[in-house]
Amino acid sequence: MLILSLDTSTTACSVALHRDGMLLGAYELFTERTSSAMLTTLINDVVQHTGHELNQLDAIAVAKGPGSYTGLRIGVSTAKGLCFALDKPLLAVNTLAAMTEQIRQFYPANTRLCPMLDARRMEVYCAFYDSAGQELRPTSAEIIDETSFGEWLTQGPVVFFGDGAAKCRTFLGQHPNAVFPDVTILPSARTVGKLATSAFTESRFEDVATFEPFYLKDFMTTQPRRAVV
């Protein structure tokens, strides 16, 4: 089972190759505007440098969102293009679930995990998971204020992490049950591939022709100003 995974949920860009759930290689870039320019290069590099060819892949996995509209569009379009060209199945993984997979083993069973991705202004994309990686509350877009997540914090420790957690820390940083890791956890194809292995085993494949990213909300654009004469 050889799975190529892509994550372009944010301005970062990563690809990984797993065999039977074991990581063979990964490339990650954390610079602005890298997804469109470098994604295909990273794909070719990770496949070739691990001694494989694209036609040996058994499936393509992609982080489906939530996240950056443009980033998700690029990642999903690239994954679908590979699936069509190579006649391979498509696997999709929730970006927040893959983020949770990076840290869940470091926290005790009574801890809730809340991955967060920055949205607009004081808004974040977030969800709640337990330390086993099971979803407790589905992904949603939330506007953060001093009343946010009160019902969760009364139940025990909650770890807020991801590039949206700083907004939450402004209001909840003094709460005794609010935990904020010192390191920012960003989406990564490494854990997308790990979760995709389970999806492959369970035959949870997507329809390549109709699959769309999980945008969560409509794409927002800024209206152009009328020129002043």
Automatic annotation (TrEMBL):
GO terms for molecular function: transferase activity. Residues 32-147 form the Gcp-like domain. The keyword Repressor does not apply. GO terms for biological process: tRNA threonylcarbamoyladenosine modification. NCBIfam families: T6A_YeaZ. This is tRNA (Adenosine(37)-N6)-threonylcarbamoyltransferase complex dimerization subunit type 1 TsaB. It holds the Pfam family TsaD. Gene3D superfamilies: 3.30.420.40. It comes from Spirosoma taeanense. The lineage of its organism: Bacteria, Pseudomonadati, Bacteroidota, Cytophagia, Cytophagales. InterPro entries: ATPase_NBD, Gcp-like_dom, T6A_TsaB. Keywords: Transferase. GO terms for cellular component: cytosol.
